[in-house]
Amino acid sequence: xxxxxxxxxxxxxxxxxxxxxxxxxxxxxxxxxxxxxxxxxxxxxxxxxxxxxxxxxxxxxxxxxxxxxxxxxxxxxxxxxxxxxxxxxxxxxxxxxxxxxxxxxxxxxxxxxxxxxxxxxxxxxxxxxxxxxxxxxxxxxxxxxxxxxxxxxxxxxxxxxxxxxxxxxxxxxxxxxxxxxxxxxxxxxxxxxxxxxxxxxxxxxxxxxxxxxxxxxxxxxxxxxxxxxxxxxxxxxxxxxxxxxxxxxxxxxxxxxxxxxxxxxxxxxxxxxxxxxxxxxxxxxxxxxxxxxxxxxxxxxxxxxxxxxxxxxxxxxxxxxxxxxxxxxxxxxxxxxxxxxxxxxxxxxxxxxxxxxxxxxxxxxxxxxxxxxxxxxxxxxxxxxxxxxxxx
Amino acid sequence: xxxxxxxxxxxxxxxxxxxxxxxxxxxxxxxxxxxxxxxxxxxxxxxxxxxxxxxxxxxxxxxxxxxxxxxxxxxxxxxxxxxxxxxxxxxxxxxxxxxxxxxxxxxxxxxxxxxxxxxxxxxxxxxxxxxxxxxxxxxxxxxxxxxxxxxxxxxxxxxxxxxxxxxxxxxxxxxxxxxxxxxxxxxxxxxxxxxxxxxxxxxxxxxxxxxxxxxxxxxxxxxxxxxxxxxxxxxxxxxxxxxxxxxxxxxxxxxxxxxxxxxxxxxxxxxxxxxxxxxxxxxxxxxxxxxx
Lengths: 392, 292
Hints:
The complex is a heterodimer of chains A (392) and B (292).
Chain A: H1 2-19, E1 28-34, H2 44-60, E2 64-66, E3 69-71, E4 73-79, H3 84-96, E5 102-103, H4 109-122, E6 126-127, E7 144-145, H5 152-165, E8 170-176, H6 179-194, E9 198-205, H7 213-222, E10 226-230, H8 233-246, E11 252-255, H9 262-268, E12 276-278, H10 291-302, H11 310-328, H12 332-341, E13 343-346, E14 349-354, E15 357-358, E16 365-369, E17 372-377
Parallel strand pairs in A: 1-4, 1-5, 6-7, 8-9, 8-10, 10-11
Antiparallel strand pairs in A: 2-3, 12-16, 13-14, 14-15, 16-17
Helix pairs in contact in A: 1-2, 2-11, 3-4, 5-6, 11-12
Chain B: H1 2-30, H2 37-55, H3 59-87, H4 89-118, E1 131-134, E2 137-140, H5 141-163, H6 165-175, H7 177-182, H8 187-210, H9 221-234, H10 239-259, H11 265-279
Helix pairs in contact in B: 1-5, 1-8, 1-9, 1-10, 2-3, 2-4, 2-8, 2-9, 3-8, 5-6, 5-8, 6-8, 9-10, 9-11
């Protein structure tokens, strides 16, 4: 399957090269490492698929615009086995031995954090994608940027404001002990208190939890208006199935990671209708004209919807690189200058960086509404109104 | 509310008991530490997903497909890897330790083959997810089916070991391998059939799990660990005690969490595991209970 895709893109690239004999250019080589095996492997396809889709689009349009010259694109990739130390070695190799022209980002916060010093040392710019932590801000600005709007302190504050606007008076918080969940919770709890929302249950659980009966019974006993589950994929599935079984009645239910996966709705169907989750992109946002075509192209190629977080961030990171290279060419310092100062037009609307952070895209929330993901907060980007959860 | 907790404990316990049963049979008769056991559960889960997605075959029927496929895989592994090694006593001695590494290899190969073939994108499907309410319990159909099938298989296996001639041979090989051979038990055949049964049970467990969990190539490892905890609690190779220990673990986990906090789940389970290894290495039920 993958071989076939590779062959297809090779043929496409060859056709492009043959067609433009006058400008038979050397390909632009973009290197990246990906967690194809190991702990994070489950997340890899959503990102690799987006990269491949971008490459197809660029090559079909005659190649990457390098300051006026169109050159075909090829990827140089390695598996980092979900290990940040491997990823560091791989990026050193990509830069020093493979001498790639550009870099694309790997998956996950720890690997992004581990790479930042390497990029600074080699003065090699890279647009990050799937990283989310307040620790990102501690990275010295310069050679890495983060388009994400899922930064835990903002998520905590915005979520509390969102809940307040829906007249939520009390909330139960169930949180995985893994870092992103705990980081968000540390900002959410004070924000809820600030907005006068009482916390009826505040419990942690381990990542390998297999049964939530006790936790959900506690939630049911306090009958809160909102149930906020700061979950990772496996427990997102578990929570939804058991919430249905035990009849959780809150009108506002949020599940953190996993609810944007295609398999989530496949496995849980109607019961997760009106589930809220974290994310800042919807194909239905008409103000972002590139959003829908990206969604359609992804669906046509992979026969599943893109992940509203990882696939979108991965694609955005390459769109940003593409636009920077069109202006600056392949000179690293010029690319750095371009990424730091330009405003980019992406599938997620305009993006501009201040320091390492995207200063335009607002921290937003999505809701599953009749099978599609709609932005429901904040008002500036929303595609549909929030709907209370009425059953499972 | 305790009825609901009781139900949760029974469901968890029956799954632990079933997954551990397959591992225990293979360890008991062949003295092989099958660290790839959880990956057979994963294969079963994928069988169920693809049978439903491609052919519309419901999981209740996929159980047989998964059992046949995983059982067949057991046969291939036995004939291809272990038959000769087990027939030579000197090699068989070392095999118990080596099997851990051999099966680790099998585990890595299985995970990555599945990831290559189907990608590591999580999968899931809906089956029997309507909620039934009775006797103060709310239960989704798929968890009821999980409990029913797992319990039936565990009891069926105990009856088979108690009343069937082949079951007697199997017990004989577990208890006194050499003596069994002397009195005319075809040890090779018993071993081959047992590894097929053990693998098939893991496949069936996979089908059951796939109805309630997301399916990924890397979902198997927690089941391997849980199964090892259970058979160490029960006593390695002690089939009946293993089943009892599976249910015990389900109860300890569910009620332990209810009495303390969910964050203590892992500490409870592994604390018990280490405690038993230190204080009663022969297992909680040790010699007190024999297979009957």
